[in-house]
Amino acid sequence: MSLRPESGRLPAAYLTPGSSSFTEFVGAHAPELLPGRRVLPPGVLEAPHGTTIVAVAFEGGVLMAGDRRATMGNVIANRDMEKVFDTDEFSLVGIAGTAGLAVELVRLFQVELEHYEKIEGTLMSLEGKANRLATMIRGNLPMAMQGLAVVPMFCGFDTDTQVGRIFSYDVTGGCYEEHSHHCVGSGSVFARGSLKKLFREGMNQDAAVRIAVEALYDAADDDSATGGPDVGRRIWPTVGVVDVDGSRFLDDELVAAAVDAIIDHRRGNPGGAR
Q: Which of 16, 23, 51, 52 is catalytic?
């Protein structure tokens, strides 16, 4: 679909009133541009995969943290990949699964929310965002059936109820609200056990950062696809926070301080409590 036809005017599709969904607009006029509509070559396709993401609710908001490792089989494909993104002023998304498709899905989701805001003149509700992302994941099902699955996690601050909320998904686009904490990715089974032991109701942001980073530390201890804090290279987990002031990412210095505190606390007993 050309943006600059010979007449110098925009195509009629751009001037016709329709849905406030950017994805539906592209699906109607240039469906081949959507990630889930592309034809893959036959055979097994090796591609980098992102791994563990954790989310923790705290008093007045919610945070999401992700390790930085991407793997391709038994090879570390990337040591400092970003897996947590802000999608609009009050929400974050973390990716697990096929990295390239996941990042592309996130970028499309960001445009989707921005397009809705411009058309409707208001932010989409938090549940609306969660359900919209579910629809986009469902559109990727044909690729997931070929082994290129994308399973993100979504969280945000609900401006109506003034609380942080967490949503998880399955590969078919099923959307489920989680409570208190959740994790996805190859190391999630280990991170979940850590979160269950460390989580406390009514925690402040600093305590939530500490247990999220420690959950990733525990996941990396038992899952080779999850990258723990790399002290030598100074590569730290990505930590994003959403509260009444909006979404933002913590500086490396703050995350490094949390990592140092965990290492000092577990010095001589790196596996944690026995």
A: 51
Residue 166 in contact with residue 62, Cβ under 8 Å? yes
Examine the residue annotation and report whether 87 is marked as an active-site residue of this protein.
Answer: no
List CB contacts of 234: < 8 A, sequence separation 6 or more.
Answer: 252, 256
- pTM for this entry: 0.83
Count of alpha carbons within 13 angstroms of residue 219, beta-carbon side: 31
Contacts 24+ apart (CB under 8 A), 66-69: 66/94, 66/95, 66/216, 66/237, 66/238, 67/187, 67/216, 67/219, 67/220, 67/226, 67/227, 67/228, 67/237, 68/227, 68/230, 68/235, 68/236, 68/237, 68/238, 69/225, 69/226, 69/227
Residue (of 195, 201, 230) closest to 214 by Cα position? 195
- When pLDDT is cut at 50, 70 and 90, the band that residue 131 belongs to is very high
